[in-house]
């Protein structure tokens, strides 16, 4: 039996978990569930990173000891993971004795191998990141590039890890293993950083008491990142080289937000090299979430209302939206209006109505699931697409393309809806055609069973509901065609995704203080806006929101990618004059190059910015 070990970062419990934590953990959960589905032996680790200075300060503000504060906050993560249906095998706390002993053993190994030495450190430090910044990373304002907060100047005698010693080995490993860091943009960032030269890093603190003492110098505590990274092995029983540790290490996937990729892809592998331990196979740094185009901010009240959206749409719809809406390696803009649209279109209409329609026809015309005795037109096409969907899904999940994986499944969902329409199965209830009707309905139910298996890593509650409604007592995990037994009694079926009207939504109130950010006229003049003609349009495979456009700017022809597929048919766009940002840096979107941007207005729908009358191509718009 193959094994699969996936981890999230351990989260700071200085406050309750937020949507960014949920995004990472749901993605890791999909991987864990998918590999269990394939019959692999899985370990899924998550937890909390309790020895951080910001945890100590948060506890101090509440008048609690750090341990008491962690004991209060850690359960909020467990509670959220339960609500989000997270199937972790280990919820790990770094205040556990298992971790403390393992972290000290790991540090002793680094020390004994000659890669730890004592020296003086001085530099700028971000308390929220728990990270020092080198001179080349500093701005004139000396603020943290992530949190936008002033950096603190620290000077103290510390222990250092010889990170610079492993620069060449790290470079070689990343070049020899192109899928070690995902996505490619993260990999390129790290290579650029590596090639500019690595410095040895401070790995102890003498000015703090909240932490794990150095095993060979109790006046120092282990720097939070050194201790935190070691949790991936200490949680498995590294201290005693347990069977669990020997079974699952090295990790298959370390999943995290892009801001902490550097620690995981440079510092952690270097320490593992120093300890003569195998390296993890994949470091995956996903993008950040924004909301309606704005950065999330507690102080400005811009946050993702997980509780409200889950209460309105359900946990599976929330999971589906996060995984379906965004390309996983890129930043994602969370829009409640898009969640609503996805819920009604994909879940309620495409999947929910298909299930209800098929169950209704079976209940009306048969006492149980009929035996498929009469094959006919379209049957083979449906069966072939079922196998193709299974094969494609494996490829997409192995490259962390969760959005494309779900679109692949939904192409099959839509194909079964067309199958119902093409065969006009509801007209076949006469005795002479009823066997054919029974075969079509059996195939539709078998497709729904297979769909339920494939969606189970993403939206597990929905998968279980589908199987119960089609008469399966125990959850069937077989992703092969023809496994549904005839003769089962199906239920009448409650809608698994009742439609939600827009008027039922809680409409957000505009913030009185929110004003568009002003730009100078000089900055606006930098934009080169040109009239262009759309010559040709085609969809982009696996990206149902994107279209690839060929446009004529008068003096040249260009290719542009536009996120308008849900609002315009390709044939309706050909011949339109549009406005293009012609001096935008080229970008690669879903492996398709885009040389410009089409202007459009967006709200509940998207409308292209066009011209009242035709103008010569290439005309500048001012």
UniProtKB/TrEMBL annotation:
Documented EC number(s): 6.1.1.10
EC class of the enzyme, as a word: ligase
Cellular compartment(s): Cytoplasm
GO terms for biological process, alphabetical: methionyl-tRNA aminoacylation
InterPro entries to which the protein is assigned, alphabetical: Anticodon_Met, Met-tRNA-synth_bsu_C, Met-tRNA_synth_2, Methionyl/Leucyl_tRNA_Synth, MetRS_core, NA-bd_OB-fold, Rossmann-like_a/b/a_fold, tRNA-bd_dom
Database matches in PANTHER family: METHIONINE--TRNA LIGASE, MITOCHONDRIAL, METHIONYL-TRNA SYNTHETASE
Assembly behavior: Homodimer.
Similarity comment text for this entry: Belongs to the class-I aminoacyl-tRNA synthetase family.
Name of protein: Methionine--tRNA ligase
Natural source organism: Geodia barretti
UniProt lineage: Eukaryota, Metazoa, Porifera, Demospongiae, Heteroscleromorpha
């Amino acid at each position: 039996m193959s094994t699969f070990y996936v981890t999230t970062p351990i989260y700071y419990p200085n406050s309750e978990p937020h949507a960014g934590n949920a995004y990472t953990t749901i993605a890791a959960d999909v991987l864990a569930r998918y590999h269990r589905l394939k019959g692999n032996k899985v370990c899924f680790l998550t937890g909390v990173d309790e020895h951080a200075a910001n945890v100590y300060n948060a506890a101090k503000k509440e008048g609690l000891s750090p341990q008491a504060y962690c004991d209060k906050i850690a359960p909020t993560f467990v509670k959220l993971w339960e609500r989000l249906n997270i199937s972790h095998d280990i919820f790990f706390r770094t205040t556990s004795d298992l971790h403390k002993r393992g972290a000290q053993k790991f540090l002793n190994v680094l020390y004994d191998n000659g890669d730890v030495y004592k020296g003086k450190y001085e530099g700028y430090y971000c308390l929220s990141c728990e990270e020092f910044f080198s001179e080349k990373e500093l701005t004139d304002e000396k603020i943290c590039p992530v949190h936008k907060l002033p950096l603190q100047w620290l000077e103290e005698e510390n222990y250092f890890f010889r990170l610079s010693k492993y620069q060449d080995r790290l470079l070689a490993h990343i070049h020899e293993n192109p899928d070690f860091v995902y996505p490619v943009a993260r990999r390129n960032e790290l290579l650029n950083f590596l090639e500019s030269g690595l410095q040895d890093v401070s790995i102890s603190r003498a000015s703090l008491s909240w932490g794990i003492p150095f095993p060979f110098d109790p006046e120092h505590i282990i720097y939070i990142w050194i201790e935190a990274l070691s949790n991936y092995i200490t949680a498995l029983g590294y201290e005693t080289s347990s069977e669990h540790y020997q079974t699952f290490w090295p990790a298959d996937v370390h999943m995290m937000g892009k801001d902490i990729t550097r620690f995981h892809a440079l510092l952690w592998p270097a320490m593992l090299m120093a300890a003569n331990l195998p390296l993890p196979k994949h470091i995956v740094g996903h993008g950040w979430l924004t909301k309606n185009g704005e950065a999330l901010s507690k102080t400005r009240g811009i946050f993702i209302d997980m509780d409200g959206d889950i209460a309105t749409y359900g946990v599976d719809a929330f999971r589906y939206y996060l995984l379906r809406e965004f390309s996983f390696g890129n930043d994602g803009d969370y829009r409640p209006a898009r969640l609503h649209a996805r819920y009604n279109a994909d879940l309620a209409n495409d999947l929910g109505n298909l299930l209800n329609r098929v169950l209704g026809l079976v209940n009306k015309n048969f006492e149980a699931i009929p035996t498929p005795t009469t094959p006919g037109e379209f049957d083979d096409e449906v069966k072939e697409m079922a196998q193709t969907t299974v094969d494609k899904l494996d490829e997409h999940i192995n490259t962390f393309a969760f959005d494309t994986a779900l679109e692949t499944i939904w192409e099959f969902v839509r194909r079964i809806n067309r199958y119902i329409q093409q065969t006009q199965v509801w007209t076949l209830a006469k005795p002479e055609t009823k066997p054919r009707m029974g075969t079509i309905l059996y195939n539709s139910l078998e497709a729904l069973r297979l769909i339920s298996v494939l969606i189970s890593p993403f939206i597990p509650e929905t998968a279980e509901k589908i199987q119960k409604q089609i008469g399966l007592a125990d959850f069937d995990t077989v992703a092969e065609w023809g496994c549904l037994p005839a003769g089962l009694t199906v239920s009448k079926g409650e809608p698994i995704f009742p439609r939600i009207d827009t008027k039922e939504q809680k409409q957000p109130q505009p913030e009185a203080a929110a004003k568009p950010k002003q730009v100078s006229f000089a900055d606006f003049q930098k934009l080169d806006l040109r009239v262009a003609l759309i010559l040709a349009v085609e969809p982009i495979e696996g990206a149902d929101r994107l279209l690839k456009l060929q446009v004529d700017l008068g003096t040249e022809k260009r290719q542009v990618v536009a996120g308008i597929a849900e609002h315009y048919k390709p044939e309706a766009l050909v011949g339109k004059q549009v406005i293009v940002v012609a001096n935008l840096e080229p970008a690669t979107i879903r492996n398709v190059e885009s040389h410009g941007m089409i202007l459009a207005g967006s709200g509940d729908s998207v409308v292209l910015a066009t011209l009242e009358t035709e103008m010569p191509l290439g005309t500048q718009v001012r």
